[in-house]
Request: fold
Amino acid sequence: MVRFESVGLRYGMGPEVLRDLTFAIEPRSFQFLTGPSGAGKTTLLRLILLALKPTRGFISIFDEDVSHIGGEALTSVRRRMGVVFQDFRLLDHLTTYENVALPLRVQGKEEASYRSEVVELLRWVGLGERMHVLPPVLSGGEKQRAAIARALIVRPELLLADEPTGNVDPNLARRLLRLFIELNRLGTSVLIATHDLNLMDQVDARRLVLGEGRLHIYD
Amino acid sequence: MTMTDDRATAVPQPETGTADSEPATASLRRDQPLVPAGSISGRALVTVIAILTFLAALTACGAVLMARASSDWRADVAREMTIQVRPTSQRDVEADVAKAADIAKATPGIASAEIYSKAEAERLLEPWLGSNLGLAELPIPRIVVLKLANGRQLDPDGLRKALAAAVPGSTLDDHHMWITRLAAMANTVVVIGALIVGLVLVATALAVAFATRGAMAGNKEIVEVLHFVGADDRFIAREFQARFLNLGLRGGLIGGLGAVALIMLLGMLAAVWRSSAGGEQIEALFGAFSIGWEGYAAVLAIAIVVALVTAVMSRVTVRRHLHDIE
Reply:
């Protein structure tokens, strides 16, 4: 599904921030990406999201060499992924409902075709009563859940989540984790970037540990 | 993979609550643009577009006004010809003038030939030479004004030859030189008007390009999110284009209506001033300050083209910007 071979990344003429990354994310797999703050977790997620280009090495996503990807192929790859940003990235002028429905709207789908699906998902993540509210009035936890719902609404083949439980209490964190596990059971590969050891201890899953620009894998 | 907390094995269930009563049939999406209205300096851009459209429309109206007036002048001038008979000491000028008028009347295509008397010829010179100068002693050329018949072809060269044979010293002026000069002047005004309209459109396109770049920079995060949730460049460009087309239409409409209102006001003022000497001169120059359907069509076309230029330019700028990001 995702394959990195000897991938390196440097900004400008600076030192390599990521070095010799070689790993794969298999279909229907569940893994954590961890490491200290500043280790490059978000950078690695951005490489998978094709928001950054590596300075060396080979990356393939969904069996497609992405070194020269662009245009429709890039859009097509991104539509197969769901992403939860650390800072949520909700659009403040759209309601919770409109934010969650955004991935379907940009695909040009009619609202009537997805309305009930979005409402159901919003209720599932506990935002049924907050669907007409604008993000600035949502709490951190509610924003987090709205961001997760937005990533899940397209039933992605690969879910990337950057510190998805960073702004919620332990109870809600466990509930969100269950959500990701259920999604994984339904066939989605999940990669959760976190430095929350408690969260990782709840699941016996593969760990990709970033440190000093290198990746160590603990199956 | 196994869960270490048995509570976590429970599948999350959909919540129930007041939201269950939410009607799923009614649209829950407002018609909210993805590019926030407030994120584009819309009012400033509408003002710039309105001013540019106003100037372009006014220029076009001026060109149309001038073209119409010039067309009227040319039609008036082209309906007339003049025979000039220069007095010489050996010949009876009165007999020559009468003979020239008779030849003209007999020529097919001439409706009438009016002889200007010596007194009338002197009166024509008064504005330049003044009165009480004793023009009687001067050999003032005599004039026969010919009116052309509508719809009949005249052979000016044949008439010229007949006059030269019968009345030596006479000349036939078909006003060709004046018509050519008027046409050249009118065409120059129209070309200058078109150039100014073209420059205004270029200025509009550049203003929109700057505004779009500003809007893209201001909405960088939104563009990034749209990319990550699977929007393609065409979709994002369409979102910006829709906003800018709206602004362009508003600016074009305001500017176009402003120009039409000003022309109508000037027309009304011209009607009020018509009784004065100055008013008569203005009317003689520009007609009744009426731009006709051509003028209104030009204003409408400019407003529409300005709106389209705004939309297309924003789309091109966004696509180029997105291409650069990639």
Q: What stands out?
A: The CA atoms of residues 18 and 44 of chain A lie 8 Å apart. Strands of chain A lie at 2-10, 16-25, 30-34, 56-61, 64-65, 81-84, 158-162, 189-193, 206-211, 214-218. The helical segments of chain A are 41-48, 71-79, 96-105, 111-124, 140-152, 170-185, 197-201.
